[in-house]
Design brief:
Length: 391
Amino acid sequence: MGAATAYIVDAVRTAGGRRGGRLAGWHPVDMAAATLDAIVARSGIDPAAIDDVIMGCVGQGGEQGFQVGRGAVLASSLPESVPAVTIDRQCGSSQQAIQFAAQAVLSGTQDVVIAAGVESMTRVPMGSTVALFAQAGLGGPKSPRQEARYPGVQFSQFLGAELVARKHGLGRAALDAYALESHRRAAAATERGDFDAEIVPLTIDTPEGPAIHVRDEGIRFDATAESIGSVKLLAEDGVISAANASQICDGASAALIVSEAALKAHGLTPLARIHHLTVTAGDPVIMLEEPLFATDRALRRAGMTIDEIDLFEVNEAFASVPLAWLRHTGADPARLNVNGGAIALGHPLGASGTKLMATLVHALRKRGKRYGLQTMCEGGGIANVTIVERL
């Protein structure tokens, strides 16, 4: 009997919405439900056959509280019998959802799992769940024991991004140039229609009346080196600005992960198979550097070299992360984030993992390439790596 395999049948995402922008009117539960409905409709699978929904979400409060994954199922066309769970691995939440889904299939305990993610950063602002407690004079997430282990240390992704840039010798000019290229690649991909196969249309209200949202709102088609370079730095002595960091974004995404038995039973055609899964953790202060070492480990365990990977999706939380990753791995820059990244397209936190996977598997298919690698820096110094093979 051969080894078990986990297949990606399809992966979809909404087009990104800017903070207070075109998706601001969508409740996050309904936005997530739209991607669940789309993945079921596109695959043609019986929704009652779904064993579980694993939903990534970082801001689990307010409209994203009370188990947003289950809420999305109950707002969708899926039957009440489909269970769901909501998970938080920070920015890698829905990439971890993919890995949990794959592990469930590989273990033989489940055959059909939807990995998904959602984040409305307009309606549930980043850090709002912590801020509410601070305003009430209650405690924060850093405990006395953490303070004893890391006295006076600030756990901050902004600090981490600056530390990565400093450690790897990346100045502002390099970060801004990378940011400009992200916008250029995203704009070109949009104009070519490269995102069409992955985007779930959403109806929105505009001053001119109802419209269909199918284009990522954050792309600056007229971006220039001058416009990016004119944005104020976040720290006076730093190199990070809002222009070379990911955009706050509203969005949802989903991927259908199934076993070989489910492929046959439901007559499904897969886009890709899961080739390898890795998650690692390291320094929680520099924190965003971990994808470098996670990639090393993933390639080693998969018995592959960096040159064997055809396309890479390295989340552009800050430009310093993919640039440091390129320097560390020696990967071909032409294979990295070929359709742009979060600097141009937005980073809807809990939705970004399955969002990047949707872009990766469809790009592999469109370009006729075989292997893709996705990695994500995550709060606390964690990183996921997922390697897929297009079929």
